[in-house]
Write a structure and sequence with these properties.
Layout (H helix, E strand, L loop, with lengths): L3 E6 L2 E6 L10 H15 L6 E5 L4 E3 L4 H4 L4 H7 L7 H4 L4 E5 L2 E3 L1 H8 L2 E5 L3 E3 L13 H9 L1 H10 L3 E2 H7 L4 E3 L4 H13 L3 H14 L4 H14 L4 H11 L11
Parallel strand pairs: 2-3, 3-5, 4-6, 5-7, 6-8, 7-10
Antiparallel strand pairs: 1-2, 8-9
Bound molecules: acetoacetyl-coenzyme A (CAA).
The site of acetoacetyl-coenzyme A (CAA) has 22 residues, from helix 2, strand 6 and helix 5.
């Protein structure tokens, strides 16, 4: 059985985690399929936005505990366990995590590696690794802290408690909540909107926002301005501005 189902609708690629018997737990096999699939679509100019999703009742229950349970530290270090999962964060195409039901541990970390998190009203987030005698290992301590601040991140990670969609939205973990009814349609509408903009402009916006997490304000603003200037060498900039002046809808060619 395929652990991830890929489906393209117009310029949107949907990657649906498909390991229901284990609540979409992220096995090495599943992650291999997800990473190689996403990297191929990332390089495809017909894809302007990616959605990663699960199903109505669970997004993902985390990394596969059964696969990890018997490993020792030497093996974990030698395999550099989880290191290659960071490849998700390196993708250039905008990624939306569409979370319905629970997103625990690696599921929450996968969502945080995405660019936008849309939650259904029934979404529940959490970093329960502390209950397993370990800590988040796929960026959770770092990304959650950057998103919600030290105090909330400490509370969530040290207690391992559930975080409802409403709380996740309030503290800035989630971008927006949509009703459970027609959740995927709401997400798809947003994704189509994004996907039809200029891909080179989208990639540049994503890179620039991510840079703000790594750099100080002054050099970040310089970085932004340089990339802003470079976009004036693209046909999409000419088309976007000309269309505004001519009062028509731009037709971005998505030349890269
Ligand atoms: N890994 C492997 N298998 C998992 C799993 C996981 N993360 N989560 C659930 N499963 C399996 C269960 O073992 C069970 O399998 P069997 O039928 O063979 O027993 C099946 O999925 C169904 O699970 P439950 O019976 O537990 O379902 P539930 O509805 O009663 O509970 C749940 C749902 C609260 C999500 C519960 O499954 C749970 O707590 N899962 C683990 C959550 C967790 O701790 N995630 C963090 C993992 S570590 C991590 O992600 C990485 C990291 O950064 C270190």
């Amino acid at each position: 059985m395929m652990n991830v189902l890929f489906k393209q609708i117009d310029r949107v690629l949907i990657a649906q985690l498909n390991r229901p018997k284990a609540l979409n737990a992220l096995s090495s096999e599943l992650m291999y399929e997800l990473l190689t699939g996403l990297e191929n679509y990332d390089a495809d100019s017909s894809v302007g936005c990616i959605i990663i999703t699960g199903n109505d009742t669970f997004f993902c229950a985390g990394a596969d505990i059964k696969e990890m349970a018997s490993k020792n530290a030497t093996q974990m270090i030698e395999e550099d366990y989880f290191n290659h999962w960071e490849r998700i964060a390196k993708l250039k195409t905008p990624i939306i995590a569409a979370v319905s039901g629970y997103a625990f541990g690696g599921g929450c970390e996968l969502a945080m590696m995405s660019d936008i998190i849309y939650a259904s009203e029934n979404a529940v987030f959490g970093q329960p690794e502390i209950k397993l005698g370990v800590i988040p290992g796929i960026g959770g301590t770092q990304r959650l802290t950057k998103l919600v601040g030290k105090s909330k991140a400490m509370d969530i990670i040290l207690t391992g408690r559930d975080v409802s969609a409403i709380e996740a939205n309030r503290i800035g973990l989630v971008s927006k909540i949509f009703p459970q009814k027609d959740f995927m349609q709401h997400v798809l509408d947003q994704a189509q909107k994004v996907a039809n903009y200029s891909k080179v402009a989208l990639k540049t916006a994503k890179e620039t926002i991510n840079q703000s997490l790594e750099t100080g304000l002054k050099s970040g603003v310089v970085f932004e301005r340089k990339l802003f200037h470079s976009l004036f060498n693209t046909p999409d900039q000419q088309e976007g501005m000309q269309a505004f002046i001519e009062k028509r809808i731009p037709q971005f060619n998505n030349f890269n």
